[in-house]
Amino acid sequence: MTGKKLKKKKGDNSKTDDIFSRINSIDDSIFKKSTGIDKGTVVDKNIKIKKSAKTRDIYKQISTIKEPTLTRHELDIPTFSTVYLTYNAYKNMIGYAIRYANDKIDNRKWKEVYGVLIGTIKGNKFVLVKDAIPLSVGGRSGVELEPIHYVDIAEIDALVYKRAIEDGNTDFIIGWWHTHPGFGFFFSGTDRVTQLGFQGSNPYAVGLIFDHTQKRGESLGVAALRLRNPERGTLSDHIIVKLSYDVEIKTVNKNINKVIEEINKNMDKVLKELNYIHNVLDKKLLRNLEKEYGLLVEKEGAQRGEGAYVWGLGFRKEGRKPKFRKRIETEIMSIKENLKDLTNKSEDILNSQQKIKNMLFEPNNSYSFIIEKFIKIIDIINPYYDYLDSNERKIIENFELRLNNYYEILDQFNNIVASFSRIKK
Q1: Band of the pLDDT at 312, cuts 50, 70, 90?
Q2: What is the pLDDT of residue 52?
Q3: Which of 35, 268, 292, 411 has the fewest CB atoms within 10 Å distance of its CB?
Q4: Helix (H) or strand (E) holding 206
Q5: What is the 3-state secondary structure (H, E, C) of 210-231?
Q6: For 255-282, what is the mean pLDDT?
Q7: CA dihedral for 127, 133, 134, 135, sign (positive or negative)
Q8: Over 90: is that where the pLDDT of 349 sits?
């Protein structure tokens, strides 16, 4: 998926005062219809909400949300179906969101974030959200997707499909999520466009919104929204639908607070290690290894880290082999030719074998040093991997891919040289 940037801009990113004034561009009547309050109403945090038997119902948790009144007909329509949010999905969503908006950050510096939801439809009755994958961070009052993020979504979709086939489940991208730090729960005009992209093809598709300022008491600070009449396109208003959880809210709050504490404590170190992978292991060590002891075939017309698209069959040009690889292959061919000639002495063959070993000594040493460093760093990053966005994960994935590709060729040469060791003097 490529193309123009999908901008989610509600206002200027400069001053907080300007942000709230620009929210007035949202239809007042639509906002009040969905939330039950007038925009600009100051909600007293001390207001006590009456307890309900259904304590896991989102409408009884958040003081600024009023439970919608649905007709019997609407209760049977996918648009109004309940959404069940697993703790895992909630944790991953909040773990990324609080990196950019929390009580310790100046509210003028809060940023919105965006991601996709993985889940399934159960019995054509409700949606089960199993995972939330972070994609991108934006500005104070908006978040945009770069073209590369559409590629990431396509990759996620393909991976989820593959796992669904392997595991025999029905998981797919069930919707999206983003944050409204300090703004509450509603769809802006751009949000409606995004939601329409999901709900237009899947009436069960849901958009989750997290606002950390609403996370207090028994509230988890999250709401599930859909378009009431998606057939009306962007003219449709939005509704807040019933949201339930797979774990008791008290347990969720207790566990998530520990997660938030660990993220606040360790994320700076994680990002520092991520930066080390990008700037030292990748740009310096691995690239120097590829430059001095190149093994991978270079694709013509492709920049470093990019693939070359070739359409049709029979027109693909053979990539260029690095000089270092050509020298090794020449020595290997020389040994193979000598083996065919019974008059050649085995000492000559073993000498050639030792020559290749010497050529591979530095590449093997350098690779071992890089992979050891990489493994140690991954051990640090791994507990927080789910809270990294698409660009951050790509740093790891792309480096690991290039490192593995290099090792595959290096290992082939090591194995060939080892096979010559069976030659007896």
Answers
A1: very low
A2: 33
A3: 268
A4: strand 206-210
A5: ECHHHCCCCCCCEEEEEECCHH
A6: 96
A7: negative
A8: no
Structural domains in the chain, CATH included, are 16-247 (3.40.140.10), 268-422 (no CATH)
Q: Which of 14-28, 187-201, 220-234, 362-376 has the lowest mean pLDDT?
A: 14-28
E strand residue ranges, 38-171: 82-85, 113-122, 126-137
Does the structure show a pLDDT above 50 at 27?
Answer: no
Cα–Cα dist 404/410, whole Å: 10
Parallel/antiparallel/unpaired status of strands 222-227 and 238-241: antiparallel
Q: CB–CB of 226/239 below 8 Å? A: yes
pLDDT tens-digit readout, 103-160: 999 999 999 999 999 999 998 889 999 999 999 999 988 887 778 888 899 999 999 9
Angle between helices 390-419 and 323-340 (to 10 degrees): 20
Euclidean distance between CA atoms 130 and 134, whole angstroms = 14
Q: From the CB of residue 401, how many other CB atoms can be counted at a distance below 10 Å?
A: 12
Provide the pLDDT for residue 97.
97
Reference 140, options 298, 275, 12, 46; nearest CA is 12
Contact 113, 96 (CB under 8 A): yes
Amino acid 354: pLDDT: 86
What's the CA gap between 217 and 61, in Å, rounded?
Answer: 8
Asked whether 399 and 277 are in contact (CB, 8 A), the reply is yes
Tokens linked to 265: 């404590």
CA-CA-CA-CA torsion sign (90, 92, 93, 97): positive
What whole-number distance in Å separates Cα of residue 121 and Cα of residue 384?
A: 28
Task: Report the alpha-carbon angle 127-73-185, nearest 5.
Answer: 50
By the 8 A CB rule, do 90 and 219 touch?
Answer: no
Whole-structure pTM value: 0.75
Rounded to the nearest integer, the mean pLDDT of the chain is 80
User: Which of 161-175, 252-266, 306-320, 385-399 comes out lowest in average pLDDT?
Assistant: 306-320
Cα separation, 372 vs 29, in Å, equals 60
Kindly state the tokens that stand for 113. 């974030």
Task: Mention every residue, 6+ apart, whose C-beta is less than 8 A from residue 256.
Answer: 90, 91, 94, 220
| Amino acid 75: pLDDT | 58
Helices then strands, counting H and E runs in the chain, come out as: 11, 8
Diameter over CA atoms, the chain: 98
- Supply φ then ψ for residue 374, to 5 degrees: -60, -45
Q: How far apart are CA 95 and CA 152, in angstroms?
A: 20
Residue found by looking up tokens 């300007």 in the block: 18
